[in-house]
Amino acid sequence: MEKVVDIQHLSKTFGTHEVLRDIDFSVKKGEVVTIIGSSGSGKSTLLRCINLLEKPSSGQIIYNGEDILDDEHDIYEYRTKLGMVFQQFNLFNNHDVLSNCTVGQIKVLKRSKEEAEKIAMKYLQVVGMDNYINAKPRQLSGGQKQRVAIARALSMEPDVMLFDEPTSALDPEMVGEVLKVMKDLAESGLTMLVVTHEMGFAKEVSDRVVFMDQGVIAEEGTPEQIFNNPVQERTREFLKRIINKE
Amino acid sequence: MSFDTIVSIFIKNWPMFLRGAGTTILISIIGTIIGLIIGLIIGIVRTIPLPNKGIKRITLIVANKILSIYIEFFRGTPMIVQAMVIFYGTAQAFGIQMNRVFAALLIVSINTGAYMSEIVRGGIVSIDNGQFEAAQAIGMNHMQTMMNVILPQVIRNILPATGNEFVINVKDTSVLNVISVTELFFQTKSIAGATFKFFEPYFIASIIYLIMTITITRILRYIERKMDGPADFIMAGNQMQVQSPDSIAYKSHTNNRKL
User: Fold this and answer.
1) H-state helical runs in B127-150
2) Ramachandran quadrant class, B229 (left: phi over 0; alpha: psi -120 to 50; beta: rest)
3) Does the CB of B128 have a partner CB in chain A at under 8 Å?
4) Which DSSP state fits A218?
5) In what order do the strands lie in the sheet with A160-164?
6) Which of residues 84-123 of B touch A (CB under 8 A)?
7) How many CA atoms lie within 13 A of B46 on its CB side?
8) I need a labelling partner for B117 at 20 to 30 A (CA). Which of A27, A174, B21, B158 fits?
9) Residue B213 at interface with chain A, using a CB cutoff of 8 Å
C-alpha cells in the first residue's frame, strides 16, 4: 500500500533533552495506527513533529515523494493535508460551531462560503453536532467541543487525521461519544494516526499498534501481537501497569 | 459666583462650549481608533516568528527595533512636549505648516498607538497557545491566524483597556490648547478670558468632560456585553427545522432551568 507520510531518522531535542531518537515510521493509506506509551515517551511530540508544530531537529518527513523539511517547501499547504485534533480541543473561541468548520476552508483552501458550509454540514452530521451550528465553543460540553474539533479537521478533507490524546481532557462519561465518532471514522476507511491512552480503542480499532518508550519505537505490530504476545520486556511491563490500573 | 451666573454664562456661551466639546470628542475618537489600529498592526508585526536566516530575519529584527524605539519615545515623553515639537518644531525646522486639527489628530494617534501596542501585546500573550496551534494546524499563515482567530479575541479582551485610553484621551486633548486647537479647554479659556470669570466656565467645562467620559464608559460596557452574548446556547435560537430527539430533550432541559 502507498505510504501517505513517511518519516526517516527523525530526531527532536529540547535543549539537551532528547525527546525523539532516530524514528523511522510511516502511515499507509487507509490505515489506522495507534501510538501508545507512558507519559514522556515522546508520542505526542512525534505527532506534533509530523505536522510541524514542533520543528524536528533532524531527519526527513516524506510526503508525496517530497521532503517537506526542505526550506523551499510550502509548509502551510502541507498542513492542510493533515487534520489535527488536540487534547484541549482548541476550537476558535471567536467563531461559532459552523464557522469553526468553514474558516479554514474559506481562508486557506479558498472555497466559496456556500461550498464550505455544505462540506462543514456534512461532517458536522457525521459527528452528530449539526444541531449546534450557531453555538459558541464556551456553550458546549467537552465531548461536544471535541466532536466539533473533529468535524473542523475533517472539513479540510485531509489525507491523514492526527489525534493527540483526544479523550484525555474529557470527563469519563464523555469519552464514549468521542470514541464512537472515531470508530465510525476508522471504519469508513479514513487514514488515522491516534495517540491514546484508551487501550480498548487501540485493541479494537487499530490496524497497527506502535509502542513508544524513551523516545524510540520499542515495538510495533498488530493489536493481537502487542496486547497478547508482546516481545519486549518494557512493552509487557507497560501493559501490566495500564491493565492493573484499569 | 452663584448658580445663576453659571447658568447665564452657559446660556450666553453654549455654542462655544458645544463646539469645543465636539472637537474634543472628534479628536479623541479618531485618535483612539487610529491608535488602536496602529497597536494591532504593531502587534501583528512583533509576533511574527523569527525566520532562521536570510534577509527576512534582518528586516524583521530592524523593524522590531524601530518599533520599540517608537514605543519608548512616545510613552516616555509628555504629550504636551510632543505637541510643541511636532507642530511648532516642524514648522520652524522644516517649514512645514500643518493644519492644527490634523496636527492634533496626528499627535493623539501616534501617542495612543504607542500605549495601545503594549496593550495589544498583553492581549496577544493572554490568548491560549492552543488557538495559535489550531490555526496553524489547518494551514493558516501568520497573517491569517492573526486576522481570523487571534485579533478578534484580543480586541474583545482589550476593550476595557481601550476604553481607558479613550477616556484618558478625552481629558488629555486639553493639553493640545498649547497648539491652539479649539477643543473644550481652549474654548473655556477664551470664555474665561472674555468674562473675567474663572470658576463658572471651568466648572461648566468639568461637567461637560464628566458627561463625555461617563457616556463613553457606558457605551463601551454595552458593546462588551453585546460581544459576549448569552452564556448558554438555546436551541430555539437557531434556524434548524428538523430536530433530533436529544436536541429536543436538551431544549426542554434549558427551558426548565429558566422557569
Assistant:
1) 129-137, 142-145
2) left
3) yes
4) E
5) A82-85, A160-164, A192-195, A32-36, A208-213, A216-221
6) none
7) 23
8) B21
9) no
Tell me the shortest Cα–Cα distance from A135 to chain B, in angstroms.
6
Inter-residue contact A108 to A63 (CB < 8 Å): no
Over residues B55-110, the pLDDT tens digits come to 889 999 999 999 999 999 999 999 999 999 999 998 888 888 889 999 999 999 99
From B153, which residue of chain A is nearest by alpha-carbon distance?
A94
Q: Which amino acid makes up residue A105?
A: Q
Q: Which DSSP letter does residue A117 get?
A: H
Q: Which residues of B touch A83 (CB under 8 A)?
A: 137-138
On average, the pLDDT of chain A sits at: 92
pLDDT, tens only, A91-112: 999 999 999 999 999 999 999 9
- In chain B, the residue whose alpha carbon lies closest to the alpha carbon of A78 is B139
The DSSP code sequence of B46-71 is: HTSPPPSSSHHHHHHHHHHHHHHHHH
Task: Look up residue A108 and give its amino acid.
Answer: V
Beta pairing partners, B250: none
How many whole angstroms separate alpha carbon B116 and alpha carbon B39?
Answer: 5
The answer to whether A106 faces chain B, any CB pair under 8 Å, is: no
Q: Residue B48: name the closest of B152, B142, B139, B150 by CA.
A: B142
Residue-averaged pLDDT of chain B:
87
CA distance B215 to B132: 36
Residues 133-162 of A with CB under 8 A from B: 133-136, 138-140, 149, 152-153, 156
Q: What's the predicted TM-score (pTM) here?
A: 0.84
Residue indicated by cell numbers 481629558: B171
Choose among B105, B116, B100, B101: nearest CA to B37.
B116
